Amino acid sequence: MATTDTQAPAMPRLKQRYVDEIRAGLKESLALGNIMEVPRLEKIVLNMGVGDAVKDGRLLDAALEDLATITGQKAVITKARKSIAGFKLREGNAIGAKVTLRGDRMWEFLDRLISIAVPRIRDFRGLPTTFDGSGNYTFGVTEQLIFPEIDYDRVDVTRGMHITIVTTARTDAEGKALLEAFGFPFRREGQGS
């Protein structure tokens, strides 16, 4: 019986930094008693609304393709929960796409987001510091072109998206401390919008 020499896949760079440095530093700065109390990432959700998909289904296909290219994972179609006559929307119409990232893909996406994509935002002055009250953070991006995986020549329409970072933090202060430790470029106090 021959033995095969298989190596475990390498841990993502940002996750390694979290385990080696950030976790211990947060335990000290937040004055937590146990290392398991330190906030950590749970998942990252990317949501792209495509309201015009009701009229033209190709727009939704392009959004699904963009999300799959950015994340490396197949996107799920989101449907309208109720009918709204003013928007000519019926319950069950496909109106967007979303991807939920966990595990190594989540860590690699966050690393690329912080180090490559966010610095490419036009007229960037920092991300807003508004959390949801439970330590989770959501921010919007106005165009998908900030991600280098997207081929500029193949883009038909620039689309924005919401990126939600879900953490195990119990308070907004803990969530902000976690993201600041990762190097999130938050807007400084007194800095304009």
Summarize the structure.
This protein is 30% helix and 17% strand. The chain is α+β, with helices and mostly antiparallel strands and 193 residues long. The radius of gyration is 19 Å and the shape is globular.
Q: Specify the helix fraction band.
A: 25-40%
Total number of beta strands = 5
Q: Indicate the overall shape.
A: globular
Radius of gyration: 19 Å
Average pLDDT across residues? 83
Low-confidence stretches: none
What does this structure look like?
- It is a single chain.
- With 193 residues, the protein is an alpha+beta fold.
- The protein has four helices and five strands, in the order αβαββαββα.
- Strands 2-3-1-5-4 form a five-stranded antiparallel sheet.
- α1 (13-29) crosses α4 (172-182).
Secondary-structure blueprint:
Blueprint: H1 13-29, E1 41-49, H2 57-71, E2 76-79, E3 94-101, H3 103-117, E4 137-141, E5 161-167, H4 172-182
Antiparallel strand pairs: 1-3, 1-5, 2-3, 4-5
Helix pairs in contact: 1-4
